[in-house]
Design brief:
Blueprint: E1 33-36, H1 42-54, E2 58-59, H2 68-77, H3 84-101, E3 109-113, H4 119-125, E4 132-137, H5 140-153, E5 158-163, H6 173-177, E6 184-188, H7 198-211, E7 217-223, H8 233-238, H9 246-262, E8 271-278, E9 283-290, E10 294-298, E11 301-305, E12 310-317, H10 321-330, E13 333-340, E14 346-353
Parallel strand pairs: 1-5, 2-12, 3-4, 3-6, 4-5, 6-7
Antiparallel strand pairs: 7-14, 8-9, 9-12, 10-11, 13-14
Length: 357
């Protein structure tokens, strides 16, 4: 599903003309640019959304979370007391930055997958003397703001953004190729890899591996499952069902996105947020559960929801180190280094390309 392929961009690298500064002054980096990957048409997007809602069980892809309001709410989630992944990973980075940076190429192109506001990447750009930042996200408005903020903070680094959908095949070979002499570091923090089903996660990792050549690296975070000692199940579930209801608002907001996309009339008040840990599958299951029996128009069809029926909106897989390192090996990575917090709640990995999978 995620096998790399050459994909067209509706916007290509433009030509820039500027006056060079005196020899004793560094040349300024070019202004940020955004490339829009055109792999999904509005008709395809609509058809996929309708098919998911008419399926049994009904599904809404997590990519529909991230309208302007969803992005803002997600930012709030990351600051919640219950949401440990962000601060735990941040702590691992802060404590081990020098050791991790020593495993990464210097002067690399820093590829920030699902970059959001870019804050997780900023601490790395100087640490590895990055030559370029490439932010990749599905939310174009958020991406544009991130590139401007990064360019202002790091004026000596080139900033490029690519708008694309990770649930479809993607390639940034052309983008990386403009500076082919600089290896790439693919940065995928926050345990976002857990939002893919295992087979899709493997395809995604293989896509990353295919971009790295022999000198690139992958820096990735993966959340660990619960256990009976340091990470009980209620603690894990609370990260996705906080006391203030912020995650519930994030989940319910997707129904407003669906209404805009399809012209439907989902009423958020007819559903409630639920997040439970499925131990057998080692994943959090985030759902919207119908409070009452009712029907909603979905495209040209009528979808009947029974009371208690769930719409699946997200799975978040949790990986033990052994399982995740096996997945990396299957994807074609060789030497793998790992760092964790003192409780073993979260793991950060640097993976080097191995034999091509």
């Amino acid at each position: 599903m995620f096998a790399p392929m050459d994909l067209p961009f509706s916007t290509r690298l433009p030509r820039f003309y500027f006056a060079y500064p005196p020899a004793d002054e560094p040349a300024p980096a070019l202004a940020p640019e955004i490339l829009v990957d055109t792999i999904e048409s509005p008709a395809e997007r609509r058809a996929g959304l309708i098919a998911g809602l008419l399926a049994e069980p009904a599904r809404i892809s997590p990519k529909f979370f991230y309208d302007a309001q969803g992005c803002a709410i997600y930012g709030a989630i990351c600051t919640l007391d219950e949401y440990y992944p962000t601060r735990t990973e941040t702590g691992i980075f802060a404590k081990n930055r020098q050791a991790i940076a020593a495993c990464l190429p210097t002067g690399a192109q820093w590829v920030d997958l699902g970059c959001g506001d870019g804050e997780k990447a900023w601490g790395w750009l100087d640490a590895v003397q990055a030559a370029r930042y490439i932010g990749i996200d599905i939310a174009e408005g958020w991406l544009a703001a991130t590139l401007q903020a990064g360019h202002k903070r790091f004026p000596h680094i080139g900033f490029t953004g690519v708008v694309t959908d990770f649930t479809r095949p993607f390639s940034i070979t052309d983008v990386l190729g403009t500076q082919a002499d600089k290896p790439a570091v693919f940065f995928y923090p926050g345990s976002s890899i857990g939002n893919f089903e295992p087979g899709q996660a493997l395809s995604m990792l293989r896509t990353m591996r295919a971009h790295l050549g022999s000198h690139g690296r992958l820096l990735i975070g993966a959340d660990a499952p619960c256990n009976t000692t340091t990470k009980p199940q209620p603690l894990l579930e609370a990260a996705y069902a906080d006391a203030l209801g912020v995650t519930a608002a994030f989940n319910l907001n997707v129904l407003r996105v669906v209404n805009r996309e399809l012209g439907s009339h989902f009423a958020p008040g007819d559903f409630e947020h639920r997040a439970v840990f499925n131990a057998a599958a080692s994943r959090i299951e985030m759902q919207l559960v119908a409070r009452r029996s009712h029907q909603v128009t979905v495209g040209d069809a009528i979808r009947q929801f029974a009371a208690g029926e769930a719409i699946i909106t997200e799975h978040s897989y949790k990986y033990t180190p052994e399982r995740f390192e096996a997945l990396l090996a299957q994807a074609g990575f060789g030497d793998v280094r790992r760092w964790s917090d003192e409780r073993g709640w979260f793991n950060v990995y640097v993976a080097a390309p191995g034999a091509q999978a």
